Structure prediction request, 634 residues.
Amino acid sequence: MKIKSIISLLCLGMGAFMFQACDDVPSPYDIPGKGDANSIYGNGKLETPYTVNGAKLNQDGGYAWVKAYIVGYIPTGENISSTISDIVFGTDEAGKSNIVIATSADSRDINSCMAVQLPTGDVRNALNLQEHPENIGKEVMLYGTLEKYFGAEGVKNIQAAILNDTEIGEMPKEESGEALFSETLTESLGAFTINNVKPAEGLGKEVWTYDSQFKCAKATSYTGGTDGLNIATESWLVSPAIDLKSTANATLTFEHAANYFNDVKNDVTVWIAEAGTENWTQLSVPAYPVGFTFVKSGDIDLNAYKGKEVKIGFKYVCTTKAGTYELKNVKVEDRAATLTPDTPDDGNSKENPYTVTTAMEKYNATTPQANTWVKGYIVGYISDKSLNENTAKLGAVGSDVVNTNILLADNAQETDYTKCLAIQLSSGNVRNALNLKDHPENLGKSVVMKGSLEKYFGTYGLKSISEYEWENGGSEPGNVILSESFADGAGSFTVTSVSGDLKWNADKKYACMKMSAFADGVSLENEDWLISPAINLSGAATLTFEQAFGPANKSMANAPQLYTVWVSDNYTGDVTTATWTQVTINYPSTSSWTFSSAQATLPAVGDKARLAFKYKNADGDETLTWEIKNVEIK
Prediction:
């Protein structure tokens, strides 16, 4: 066993050396995804749980087992806005709502830690450090959803745990059934076929295509570009016949991601029919995505179709807005479906806030509900004294913007004001930080806030906001002017090309935006800009971000001329007519695929300023790839 380990380490070392020696490799290393049973990261199963590192690499919102050591907690409470960096290693003054786990019992490295949400019930009662300080340093197994918590990779909605060989909570059934049908869609559309019930006339391509960049099936009827059109369509991706004639059970699962929809649950639906017929029945999907992060669908019970041959159809429609839908790892297994427990949603804490939809369901027009927590996206504001389709301003900040209210929704791209919660912004720190008049960059941001659930503008509202926290971990009120990670694409930034065919593009694997003028073995002329939304730079501010350059070990002598940062106070959509001021940033001495920190002092140019990253290259020049992430202005 020791000899095998040594050989494995030698192979890994040789592989890393060979990888770095290839100049055309786009990034420095391949981050492992889900491992097999022998992986050092685990695979999330009970018998081979994820390590902390494995759990960090698989933040897809799905349920999995994680094995680690309890090392501390993160403080919470009134007027406390904590992040993962606020870990308390120990038990003094511990709360009940969370713990922190690490790779070892004595770890004090924040990069080796994850925050764990403890929902009310048996799990919290057994694991919290306030009542059980003796748990510190103990190894624990946790079954929960892998998703962001306290602004970093985390574990939430713990359904079950194992501590001191004792099972706690509701142990899940292991998925061990035989695959009756499996199509990854990571190399092609496989055996799936396309049925265009209503062709997307003028689109120029199929609605359903294989995306070689992100290795999945993709559906969209948007023509692309800044002046793109939303083409009306109904298009299906249909599986081949799946034999359920002799199966004891049948369960469907898949992974999907989606963005830019008005209502993804209505625009992308899943159906089943007996093979050879078109008598389709819609299936209920337990979990839909929000944004370009793949999530597991949850188990979909097909037992009503045992003894038959069936086909599965993924139906994409567009009437007014063409979102983008991504699909992979479609599987039908011979096993009983496991019901995914509902996410705790009691509105009693910022760890378990209501969604906007739930808040509306819990709303009582005659009895205000004080101290209610709600989470959603800031999508707009109400421009007048009454709320209607003309005064609800969604998706953009106009000249009629006010600082006294905002609209909150479950979908960052929501266009239906009836699905929004009206938020009253009383004077003070909350108004100063959240209003769109002073902070148009808040549009589309996710926030959790506490207030009184009651009537406002004659409809569903949240008033008397006493506390709030940005989803990315919170900050002092009004402190952050702009924050964009690029983890899910360009976000609020726009891409503009002045010359050349290549553009800034998103790299999902490394959670960044990147630009290179190298294609087909040659370096080409290109000038391309990555431009922020309008931001308030009426006072001096500090820009920080992370950047990487590749191939590695190249000269950075020309970087201040080629890879630059600018600000403007009069940009209106054309970079060539705006007045731009270059700001000085720091660069590494030689290129490296490893991200390093950069910063700059931004001048006070006005309250409608723009920040831009400019990439410029001439034909034949030795060019580098520039990667950028985690942009923040304070």
Q: What stands out?
A: The longest strand covers residues 369-382. Residues 1-38, 472-479 have pLDDT under 50 and may be disordered.
